[in-house]
Amino acid sequence: MEHASYQARRGEIEHYFDRTAVKAWEHLTSDAPVGRIRATVRAGRDRMRSLLLSWLPDDLHGRRILDAGCGTGAFAVEAARRGAQVVAIDLSPTLVELAVRRVAQHLDTFENGGHIDFRSGDMLHESLGQFDHVVAMDSLIHYEAEDVVRALEAWAPRVSRSMLITFAPRTPALAAMHAVGRFFPRGDRAPAIEPVAEQALKRALVASPGLQGFRDSRCERIASGFYTSQALEVSRA
Ligand SMILES: C[S@@+](CC[C@H](N)C(=O)[O-])C[C@H]1O[C@@H](n2cnc3c(N)ncnc32)[C@H](O)[C@@H]1O
Question: In 31, 65, 105, 201, which residue has its Cα 20 to 30 A from 113's Cα atom?
Answer without folding.
Answer: 31
